[in-house]
Amino acid sequence: MVLEAMQSPSDVKALAPSEIPVLAEEIREAIVEAVSRVGGHLGSNLGVVELTIALHRVFDSPKDLLVWDTGHQAYVHKMLTGRRDRFDQLRQAGGLSGYPDREESPHDLIENSHASTALSWVAGLTFGQIAGPGDPPLPGTGSAPAPGQAISSSQRHDGWPRGRRARRGSEDERRRFIAVVGDGALTGGMAYEALNNIGHHQLPAIIVLNDNGRSYAETVSRLSERVANLRTDPRYRSMRGRVDRALTRLPFMERLTDAGLEAVKSAISEAPALQSFVEALGVRYLGPYDGHDVEKLEDALSHAARAQTPVLVHVLTQKGKGYAPAETDPEKKLHDTSAFDVSTGRANGGGTRKWTAAFGAALLEEAEGRPELVALTAAMPGSTGLLPLASRAPAQVLDVGIAEQHAVTSAAGLAHAGKLPVFAVYSTFFSRAFDQANLDVGLHGEHVVFVLDRAGVTGDDGPSHHGILDMALGLRIAGMTVLAPSCEEDMAALLSCALDLDGPVMLRFPKGSAIAATDIGVTPGDVDGLMARKLRDGADVCVLAVGDRVGAAMEAADQLQEAEIDAAVWDVRSVRPADGRMLAEAADAPLVVTVENGVVGGGAGTELTDRIVELAGVRHAPPVLRLGVPSAFLPHGKPDRILAELGLDGAGIAAATRKVLADER
Ligand SMILES: Cc1ncc(C[n+]2csc(CCOP(=O)(O)OP(=O)(O)O)c2C)c(N)n1
Q1: How many CA within 13 A on the CB side of residue 387?
Q2: Mutate which of 52, 321, 402, 432 to test ligand 1's pocket (most atoms within 8 Å of Cβ)?
Q3: What confidence tens digit (pLDDT) does each residue in 77-126 have?
Q4: 548 contacts 509 by C-beta, under 8 angstroms
Q5: Would you list the domain boundaries of the chain?
Q6: Which of 165, 174, 434, 553 is most buried (CB neighbours < 10 A)?
Q7: Does 355-508 match 3-139+154-233+270-316 at the fold level?
């Protein structure tokens, strides 16, 4: 087996050309096998097999740094950098992360999993390597950095040569920074901001655009659309050669004045939008290349490696390549999946209805009588439950690309124009648009409904995917209504309220199977509007449970009962505004316990405590035990296990309550 012998990139470099297709096939088999067992990112990784092999044959990782945008497509890179053996523990607690991870390997630099950041990382890394005190200014920079303010040119603790020595050092000494970015990630604003800077300052960064025409769904971009058309146009190849020859001959700045200008201009005018666009920003364009032809890719990447100016290598790949169920999946080319049957590509189990599907159904119903409703998604229509609505009423769904900030501000505009925007987004990605939610929506009091899916501890995808900040962030926005249903039926009821309200509204629910009202002793429809729901009476402690923690609070109350502690339990439903009846009862209790699946500092517990103190007065307010997620970057693992470790399951809530009562007695 060729793959087994690949312990480091030097083994990949040593392969004979005839062994490369064998390696590619073995990698694909290994990826399909690993993801079929534990779930993960499939289509994206199958598409970059040859590209990753070529990158490791041309560059010298980890001296040269490969920065994977988003990082969901780094499985092949992991396999070629000594981690093949650990794929049996992919995404398991204590096992291999589903994203690059600095702790795992010196070949991994960033581990954020939020899209569109790689170009900025590479811009910073490149700038950091070349800028030193006393150096002449970079093109486009007003003046040379002042001594003392500039980045030191001395040797860094990790042995990176910097400043003049690195810039003027031998080819061997120069580190290269390579951003590998998808056409989907290129729809995110940060990528454009970085491209603008890289070109303007002529930073010798290498950008590899892995263009498969898809985010999850088809990529929302005319740049990509034009390329898609060109892929099939035979005239394109010859025209490309002409442009490339012209551009290779002339350094970018000279092109504007050189006698070759007319040739370049005429060539560019026929060239794809993407090329014209990046060249206008000062980044040299190479391509497009067949992303499954290792030899051609090696040539192109070697050419880019020698460049002293910014260069973008445009690579065309097929998402899901080599595994028929992924290649043919119309929704997302099996971009990501839970564990599945290899023979069919169909996910295992799947019997239970997920929160996302429940939301999708509720939205479909609500949209029926509300033609002004527009559901927005940042490139995740399927994963956020919008496909049922998109298929019935396509005009009521708007995919904006991986552009959460734009989604929020354009939702403010839509609301102002009389529409009813509903932004369906994963909690973790909402953080990116906090400023827009605060100022463009909040300050202007626009009625935008934020539907936050995967809120709380999400598990398998690790620190950057936990949705634990949304409540703390949402509650910082003046006038934001914050709703957290405890069960599926209530999600539909609260969605309806959210659509009827005014101003910004946030509705959050967790990942996974929806909880039915009967599972937690809730009678659907027993409360109106934003009222809280009292689920249980008890005089010793008043538990205020938020969202999916209601079930755990009820379990805790049963356990406390066994210790002869009578706990009242409330299903809070609306964190802000909180129900006055619930607050009044809590203000009279000997002890209040709040519990939430979100970061505890500044979250729902903090909000409810403040309201109780306002009501009872500082000196008379009861003690409040606030339970929630600590401020920490939580590793990957199964959500229930993580919640139990954090003391947020029934047993944990009961134990923490007993301890406080015991300490007080
Ligand atoms: C800020 C942000 N929003 C949404 C996502 C969810 N997401 C993960 S991968 C992806 C599509 C990426 O498409 P592309 O960059 O083209 O990579 P491909 O999987 O097609 O190779 C999206 C929308 C994300 N990771 N980050």
Answers
A1: 11
A2: 402
A3: 999 999 999 999 999 989 999 999 999 999 999 887 999 999 999 999 99
A4: yes
A5: 3-139+154-233+270-316, 355-508, 531-664
A6: 553
A7: yes
Taking only Cα atoms into account, the Rg of the chain, rounded to an integer number of angstroms, comes to 27
- No. of H helices and E strands in the chain? 27, 19
> Which of the residues 28, 57, 319, 626 is marked catalytic?
319
Topology (CATH level 3) of domain 531-664: Rossmann fold (3.40.50)
> Could you give the count of Cα atoms lying within 13 Å of 10 in the half-sphere of its Cβ?
2
* pLDDT < 70: residue spans in the chain: 132-172, 224-271, 350, 665
- Considering the domain 355-508, what is its CATH architecture? 3-Layer(aba) Sandwich (3.40)
- Ligand 1 is surrounded, with C-beta below 6 A, by 44, 47, 70, 72-73, 113-115, 182-185, 210, 212, 214-216, 319, 335, 378-380, 402, 404, 429, 432
Query: How confident is the model over 567-596, as pLDDT tens digits?
Result: 999 999 999 999 999 999 999 999 999 999
| 226 among known catalytic residues | no
Atom index in ligand 1 nearest the CA of residue 188 equals: 1
Q: Which residues of 572-608 are buried (b: 16+ CB within 10 A; e: fewer)?
A: bbbbbebbeebbebbbebebbbbbbbbbbebbbbbbb
- Alpha-carbon distance 373 to 447, whole Å? 11
Cα–Cα distance list, 100 to 54, 176, 194, 513 (Å)? 19, 18, 21, 28
- Check 175, 176, 284, 432 and give the catalytic one: 432
pLDDT score of 173: 72
pTM of the complete model = 0.90
Catalytic residue, from 298, 404, 446, 607: name it. Answer: 404
Look at residue 139 in the predicted model and tell me its pLDDT.
55
- 404 catalytic? Reply is yes
CA 432 to ligand 1: nearest atom: 1
Cα–Cα dist 95/446, whole Å: 45
Query: Which residue's CA is minimally distant from atom 21 of ligand 1?
Result: 44
